[in-house]
Amino acid sequence: MIVETINLTRVYRLGSSEIRALRGVSLGVEEGTFTTILGPSGSGKSTLLHLIGLLDRPTSGRVLFRGRDTSLLSDRERRRLRLRNIGFVFQTFNLLPTLTALENVELPMALAGVRPPEQRRRAIRLLEEVGLGDRLHHRPSKLSVGEMQRVAVARALANGPSLIIADEPTGELDSKTGEEVLRLLKGLCEERGVTVLMATHDERAARLSDRTYRLLDGVLQG
Ligand SMILES: Nc1ncnc2c1ncn2[C@@H]1O[C@H](COP(=O)(O)OP(=O)(O)OP(=O)(O)O)[C@@H](O)[C@H]1O
Ligand SMILES: [Mg+2]
Asked: What's the domain count of the chain?
């Protein structure tokens, strides 16, 4: 198991009101699989992915990464674990608009302390791998949405992660382009052995997955 969650809860406090976004979620993600979290808007998918991706801490419960209890780690240790092991793909790509495709892919490597020549070599190879070898110097505004998402996938792969977390990666894409991005993620899983954990509200997007968890109102179903 690459990731396990044990009875995760997350309560957001807004003034005097409380939103219980997750109400005790326990699940496992097997190494090398394509796992999907399927649920409608507001069901807690992003909240869950942020906790698993170590971007946020639960109100209660635990996230184990390869058996290691991440709640026992300092912020610095969590950041290090995240940078080396986890890549993120977001619905709205989150590319930096002033950087080229190449520079966007280099950024996580710079944060991990990879030397610049090596950053460049790896970034070129990754962009070629996602089919963007001829778009290296384009800024996001000069790319199609499908191309932007492929840059984001290349960026997620920058530090050779074992886990890719994708939060509605096809949400902004038309069905054909969305299909291409799903195939790309599936290929990473099959050819590189990368574990993919994807959230979606689209039943069809879930069909490529090895395992599907259904989330409703912060609770796993079935
Ligand atoms: N930072 C926050 N502060 C307060 N409430 C939040 C916050 N983030 C999410 N919520 C609430 O928690 C619940 C779960 O939200 P979450 O974003 O995890 O759902 P989701 O399944 O990702 O939805 P979507 O499909 O629309 O992205 C919702 O009721 C949402 O309004
Ligand atoms: Mg969401």
From this structure: 1
Q: What is the pLDDT of residue 206?
A: 86
Answer whether 17 contacts ligand 1 (Cβ < 6 A): no
Residue partners of 32: CB distance under 8 A and separation at least 6: 189, 193, 194, 195
Token pair in block for residue 182: 């799903």
Record the tokens describing residue 117, joined without a space. 């020549």
The CA distance from 202 to 125, in Å, is 31
Distance 39 CA to ligand 2 centre (A): 9
pLDDT band at 131 (very low <50, low <70, confident <90, very high): very high
Q: Is 100 helix (H, G, I), strand (E, B) or coil?
A: coil
The finding on whether 21 has its CB within 6 A of some atom of ligand 1 is: yes
- The neighbouring-strand residues paired with 197 are 35, 165
**At 207, which CATH number?**
3.40.50.300
* pTM of the full structure: 0.95
Q: Is 201 in the pocket of ligand 1 (CB under 6 A)?
A: yes
Candidates 61, 94, 93, 63; CA nearest to 78 is 63
Residue 158 structural domain:
3-220
Query: Which residue's alpha carbon is at the smallest distance from atom 2 of ligand 1?
Result: 12
Q: Report the candidate in 57, 76, 90 with the shortest Cα–Cα distance to residue 165.
A: 90
